[in-house]
UniProtKB/TrEMBL annotation:
Gene Ontology MF terms: peptidase activity
Transmembrane segments: 20-39, 45-67, 79-106, 118-143, 155-175, 195-216, 223-240, 252-271
The entry's keywords: Hydrolase, Membrane, Protease, Transmembrane, Transmembrane helix
Superkingdom in the source lineage: Bacteria
Protein name: Protease PrsW
PANTHER family from the UniProt entry: PROTEASE PRSW
Region (Disordered): 374-403
GO biological process: proteolysis
Length: 403
């Protein structure tokens, strides 16, 4: 079998170096983040460093929690990093400039100092910030539509851009709290923003992610769905800002709102994962004549715990190479099932579908051969999920693993 790049096949891209547009986008986003941090440092004094440490502190844990939603069909790391950096750079700096200009030249001159800040927070900031955060999602829809296979993918990218934005915004909030009220006020703000409700921005932008995901995977509503999602994100954001300005009762209501939205999004992800499992059970038997899957192997592929156990078994048997081959096989099989979902919904161009299907089948075959090559010579015992059924991860009786 010809040598192929498993990562490139799984991500649906040409093998080789990262695209120039991606490198440029990361560079611009990073520069914007540095400028935003420089502005905070210029006006923040000692509070800037305290704010930056506290803002960064929960991010690894929050990212890890978000990534747990993406275990069955992980998104390309480069796309997730770009989304995060867009939120932390371009979106933050753009919001800083536009929100400031709106205050100085629109809301404060029209409504006065106090009312102008309220109007800006409730109506201006949500429109500006959700538009800037959503821009990267619209970009993915335009240039990398095939990367979004369902609602979970839209939520994933939205959460990453939201976490980047929230991290940078929290630097400013913590910095101001420390400079104005010392450690006591800083502690209160950190508890409210960093512990009680750290996912507000990801939850708002997830509305846009849902609309973009619908447009990427359906023929009907492809134009209106992203607009509805963006509008819902702005509405949730505006409700949050407005209620948060109304004392403890308002704060309590927006935290309840956060919890309800979070529960709804988790339900969407779980339902979609269940549907993916059903699709695996429905699609992969079509490929049993190729010899790449057996009923026992399909049983392993339909369960995240069984997949994890299969990778552990592969690692114990053949080391990291065997575990990597098993992972590539699992991911290619999942992508194959999701490819059929696109075809069934009429959003897969026939020639692209055939090329993508063949590439995934080639990768499944390559991964299985790589696993068999790493297995101990003379092994004949089947994998734990194939008792009593046959599995493609057992060398044929007529040949050894190196034949």
């Amino acid at each position: 079998m010809a040598r192929i790049d498993p990562k490139a096949v799984l991500e649906g891209r040409m093998p080789g170096r990262p695209p120039v547009a991606l490198v440029m986008g990361l560079t611009v986003s990073s520069l914007c983040a540095l400028v935003a941090l420089g502005i905070d440092a210029l006006y923040g004094g000692a509070g800037f460093w305290v704010g930056m440490i506290l803002a960064i502190l929960p991010i690894p844990l929050l990212i890890a929690l978000v990534l747990t939603l993406d275990r069955m069909e992980p998104e390309p790391p480069r796309a997730l990093v770009f989304s995060f950096m867009w939120g932390a750079g371009v979106a933050v700096l753009g919001a800083l400039v536009l929100n400031t200009l709106g205050l100085l030249y629109v809301t404060v001159p029209i409504f006065g100092e106090v009312r102008g800040h309220f109007v800006s927070a409730v109506f201006g900031a949500p429109v500006i910030e959700e538009s800037l955060k959503g821009a990267v999602l619209f970009g993915l829809l335009w240039w990398r539509r095939n990367e979004i296979d369902g609602f979970a993918d839209g939520i994933m990218y939205a959460c990453m851009v939201g976490l980047g934005f929230a991290m940078m915004e929290n630097v400013t909030y913590y910095m101001r709290a420390f400079d104005l009220g010392g450690t006591k006020q800083l502690q209160t703000v950190f508890i409210l923003r960093g512990i009680v409700a750290p996912l507000s921005h990801p939850l708002f932008t997830s509305m846009t992610g849902l609309g973009v995901a619908w447009a990427a995977t359906h023929r009907r509503g492809r134009t209106i769905a992203p607009a509805i999602g963006l509008l819902a994100a702005m509405l949730l954001h505006g409700l949050w800002n407005g209620a948060a300005a109304m004392g403890l009762g308002g704060l309590g209501s927006v935290y309840v709102l956060d919890a309800v939205v979070l529960a709804a999004l988790l339900a969407v992800v779980l339902v979609e994962r269940h549907n993916t499992v059903k699709r695996i059970e429905h699609v992969l038997p079509l490929y049993q004549p190729t010899g790449l899957v057996t009923p026992a192997d399909i049983g392993m592929l339909r369960s995240i715990p069984a997949r994890r156990a299969a990778r552990r078994w592969a690692r114990a048997l053949g080391g990291r190479g065997a575990a990597k081959a098993m992972e590539d096989y699992q991911l290619a099989a999942t992508e194959l099932a999701l490819l059929h979902k696109r075809a069934e919904r009429g959003v897969a161009e026939p020639h692209w579908f055939e090329a993508r299907r063949d590439a995934l089948l080639d990768l499944m075959g390559l991964a299985r051969q790589a696993f068999l090559r790493t297995a101990p010579p003379g092994r004949r015992q089947g994998p734990p999920w194939a008792d009593p059924g046959p599995s493609g991860f057992v060398p044929p009786p007529s040949q050894g693993p190196y034949d």
